[in-house]
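Working notes for the structural subgroup meeting. M.R. asked for a predicted model of this chain before we commit to crystallization trials. I am recording the input and output together here so anyone reviewing the notebook later can reproduce the run.

Input as submitted:
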Amino acid sequence: MTQDNHQIVLAELPQGKLEASHFRAATAPMPAAAEGEVLVKTLYMSLDAANRAWMQGATYRSALKAGDVMAGGALAEVVESRFPALSPGDLVFADTGWQIYAAVPAKRLTKLPRLEPLTHLLSVYGVAGLTAYFGLLECGKPRAGETVVVSAAAGSVGSIVGQIARIKGCRTVGIAGGAAKCALLTRDLGFDAAVDYKAGDVRRALRAACPEGIDVYFDNVGGDIFEACLFNMNNAGRIACCGAVSQYDGAAPRAGPRGVPGLIVTKRLTLRGFIVSDFDAQRSEALAELKGWVDSGQLQVREDVLEGLENLPEALVGLLAGENIGKRMVKIG
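Returned structure, recorded in token form:
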């Protein structure tokens, strides 16, 4: 194999909002798989708000620096394998970075089944679906009849969280930006109510949508919306802390509200942060249940698929601005 490998590099670390100009196209020699590695070709690149967080410092992965190939997970196909359990043609989830080809240690790959549509392997059967499943059911622990609120409810994770809550017999309220997204939640995805955070006083709108308070809050955004939900929580409420997209892109967030520790104590709230790999041992059972819900029509899958490696920067900027409904990804191969 002699062709070049096309890449997107993080040209400089953003000091404010992320822009497409912070990236540049690059070309590198075709990588080769060493012993224990696999050469893969990227098919679909996953886009997530966490991509932006990795530019701010070390998290559950190393921080990005200027000049790095932009990090990202992808659905990829094995081209060449130097690991006995994987063969050419196998599908894997891989941390390839934003490039067409990557040589990846086999121990870091997740082998995937070949099913249609392939995009579901990145959405409902991928990190988005599993994050929604474990974050709600293992961290939020909802009970039938309770009120569940989820922020970024029209996004890749939130749209699934709300539907699982409904399946489990909960009253489900989504927070999203704009009338169109809110209408989609209640009209198409079965949410009981939706709050448009762009339309005014979120706290007042939440009180109206949740007259009996909030039992479980699934937080994707942090910031003011987290605060608004916190002050509407019921005693013994649970908060699943999945992300803080409101704080990833732009100026440093303001200081948090005074009195929060006392509120957590007096209401006996449980706040739990998590990442999806915390629950790897339960992955197969979760996927079986998710697939059953999709096959039965109880769970709708929303995806936002763009095309072209060169369009990844604009696609990520757009995701951070809330352009997408459902899981955003870019078709590469």
